[in-house]
Amino acid sequence: MVANIAVLLLGGAAACVQAAAYPSHAPLFDYERRHLTPSHVSRWSPENRALFRFDSDEDFQKRDLRQRKGECKVFPGDKDWPSDKEWEKFNKQVDGALIPTVPLAAPCYKNWGVYDQAKCAEITARFTDPYLHTADPASGMWPTYQGRTCLAHDSPNDNCTLGGYPSYAVKITNVAQIQTSINFARNKNLRLVIKNTGHDFLGKSLGAGSLSLWTHALKDLDFIESYKSDSGYRGPAIKVGAGVIFRELYDFAHEKGVIVAGGICETVGYAGGYFALGGHTPMSGYYGMAADSIEAIQLVTADGKFITASSKQNAELFWALRGGGGSTFGVVTSVITRAHPKMPVVTTTLFFGVGGDVTNDIFWQGIKAYFEQFPLWAENRAYTFFVVGPGFFDPTQLSFALVPFWAPGHTIESSNKLLQPWLDRLAELGIQVTPNVTRFDSFKEAHAASWPGITVGSVGLNNNRLFPKSIWEDAGKFERFMGVLRRHVDEGRSIVGYFQAPRNRLNVDNAVSSAWRHANAFLLSGAPIEGGENATQAQLQAAAKNNIEYMEPWRELSRPRDFGGSYGNEGDVVEPKWQEEFYGIQYERLLRVKGKWDPKDVFYATTAVGSERWEVRDGDWGTQTQMGRLCRI
């Protein structure tokens, strides 16, 4: 349809440049200066105004009656799907940035007309590399939620389909394109999705029949040495573009002699879903969650307006944007985050496993002694990342890997002192370990040495729990907790875990889940899928059911009423009662903010605030894929 459209720049969105004032005490990026106002649209032809108009205040308060009757977002093949002429007009308005989706692995199949055996081999070899997917306008990193309809295998005679991939993406290079895209999607009743990197574990950046806003090119960074925030914060800050990933942000902060509270995976985007649902960080002992350091947000809202949110400007929306979930309230174009003082980090790694004189019982006594240290470590601002389960030394034997114990602001001596009670207990048990201790002068150096990257592109199901500190305050609960973990691993499953205690270190008011404010441990697991990439519908349904059932003992120890819960960015897409599990006591307030700022549900993402009003009709795979119509329930 639009693959061969000539690009016409005159009259497009980029031609509309608004010389805006500087909001929130910091200049707009150049790409943010190129934004639209209703006065621009008023000068367009009636036909263009119908397609790209903003919602007026009156219109914006009216819900779409078709949606209230349970109808669906427009889908390819429907009579209301935009015509070729309308797609051409839209492409012109976004400066020729409209990209028809071709699945990343399409060169492995003949039905797309792009079969290339050598290219297929390259894609297959790199399919687990996050950078491959971040560079593609539509690809997500977890094929389970796309529908597994075009995997990277040399299968020339098989059929590769879009499945849950969007129909089109817009490569965003200025705010006017975001506004035009939102207005077009809203006015034509299209499903809209947002992608930066595609990291989302639940497939929120996917959606069959959708228009995707690909923000990955918004890479600007600006260091503000003396920032004056609406909240009263005074000090250094960094303004971060929506497409910036952690590696880029950490490099930039390091050059400026500061650090930013971000995550461990270098390819995750900072200013998107990560901070939007809180954002856990190895610096949590000092600064809490990443969302706690955010001082201002530039975004485009569901009515197409470009606004600022801060503690004094659109304050209720600002509250919700920091912890209330991504793809929910608007499209973020940049954020301003506090920049914290540079500090050294000491890391310690060690490994041990079952074997020799170390029996299963002795092994678990060592693990129990490890968990017993969490309150002490919380007081001293430490953080850990670890894996316990079969496979490190011998696939048939249990092992434990601490990779690493992370002690920011500590010396080698003070870090060793924190670990010594546990190491002494291991020695008593006859568990021999050789700690590898390293001091780094900076966060960036420690991060690069500790977390070189992750692999993606696999088929599987995720789950996690946030365990509250109250478990450590009750001996009976703690014994039950350790018993639950042991049974889980004894049944052949691994646990990936973090000790972290974010609390509310900066004493801010935002929508971060109450579970994070009380957490002492964040533990993840998952369910195997019989059949793997070729799993049938019945096999995936069984795996999804199994995933829920296996986690029930974890839930019993970490109910929201006890300030437990689950982290929505890495959770189960069909988590029971996800509203309270992912958002804690904040959910009802978040729902009210959603109703005010997006009454027509322009923005939808699975398990996002208000998404219970919608369903993706994918044929029931047990877990929610994105390969179906989006319809109001």
UniProtKB/TrEMBL annotation:
What is the annotated signal peptide range for this record?
1-19
The reply to whether Oxidoreductase figures as a keyword in the UniProt entry is: yes
Keywords from the named record: Oxidoreductase, Signal
Question: One Pfam match, by short name?
Answer: BBE
Q: InterPro entries given for it?
A: BBE (IPR012951), FAD-bd_PCMH (IPR016166), FAD-bd_PCMH-like_sf (IPR036318), FAD-bd_PCMH_sub2 (IPR016169), FAD-linked_Oxidoreductases_BP (IPR050432), Oxid_FAD_bind_N (IPR006094)
MF-aspect GO terms: FAD binding; oxidoreductase activity
The Swiss-Prot or TrEMBL record describes its family as follows: Belongs to the oxygen-dependent FAD-linked oxidoreductase family.
Identify the residues that the record assigns to the FAD-binding PCMH-type domain, covering every copy: 162-342
**Protein known as:** Isoamyl alcohol oxidase-like protein
Q: Which PANTHER family match?
A: FAD BINDING DOMAIN PROTEIN (AFU_ORTHOLOGUE AFUA_6G12070)-RELATED, GULONOLACTONE OXIDASE
